[in-house]
Amino acid sequence: MAEKRGNIEIVSLPDYAHTNPTFIVSGLCELGNTFFQQIGVPHRHDFYTIYWIKSGKLTQTIDSVIHEVKDNTLFFLAPGQVHNIRSSEKIEGYMIAFQDSFMCLRDQDQVSAIKSSLFFNNQFSSIITLSAEESVDFEAVIGLMMKELSLQEPDYDTALHGLLRYFLVLASRIKGESVLSTPEQTSAHNSSIFLKFKNLIEEKYVDLKNVSDYASLLYIKPVLLNEISKQLSGITAGEHIRNRVILEAQRYLHFTDLTAKEIAYKLGFEDPHYFSRFFKKYTNQSPSEFKEASRAVNPQP
């Protein structure tokens, strides 16, 4: 009997290089074992990925949807999507991979290209078959990307940023859509992230207290999680986490006879004194003051 799979592996961009890059472009064969050992194994990326399969046929399962990928096909993966490549023959092509911080390099006020409908849409459908004529332009862009990465001349990161944006524009034209997602697509995606965030708080607020912890689980940056939270609820992600912890502390203080020290440990605080300071900072009352005041207003039987 095959060993039961207990988790879904998360692959990080540094797994493909010896440094910690924010952008790479490579032939599939040059990726070596890092790529080919993942064939047949469901996994996630914590970065954006574009595959161009130039030759060979494969089956690509993305979030339970199966796609047949043939010669000269592009497909796009967003961080966190579970995918599994299966191939019975040799495949050749390219992989472009980048972190969201790379796309924000020159767009400090927006992440428009990341919101591309090539990566985010209602049903994953960003698989594009290229004609021989269309392939010429994509080949030229990839060649320039490789040249910039190899030479790393002044402002090469700016050049790479522009080349990637151009690559996305070319693909979007073929797909027949704008490179930018519609407001409805962006809103739906953000709402989904926020709902997952709220559910994660319910599951993990005892153990996880930092926005970065939740952002990591959602495969996004903390600043983006805060932005989405503020947009949809009016308060930051950090406030949501703190409010949930404080609510549970107030429940214990009001409905049980536990001491502040005992409550601190139940809520995952290693230092009871820190818990008391934390509670007072955000409620303007110490735990004992809150207990007295709440029971005076609503005495327990």
Automatic annotation (TrEMBL):
SMART domains listed in its UniProt record: HTH_ARAC
Listed GO MF terms: DNA-binding transcription factor activity; sequence-specific DNA binding
Residue ranges constituting the HTH araC/xylS-type domain according to the UniProt record: 195-293
InterPro entries xref list: AraC-bd, Homeodomain-like_sf, HTH-like, HTH_AraC, RmlC-like_jellyroll, Tscrpt_reg_AraC-type_HTH
Superkingdom of origin: Bacteria
Pfam families, per the entry: AraC_binding, HTH_18
Keywords: DNA-binding, Transcription, Transcription regulation
UniProt-listed PANTHER family: ARAC-FAMILY TRANSCRIPTIONAL REGULATOR, TRANSCRIPTIONAL REGULATORY PROTEIN
Name the record gives this protein: Transcriptional regulator, AraC family
UniProt source species: Chitinophaga jiangningensis
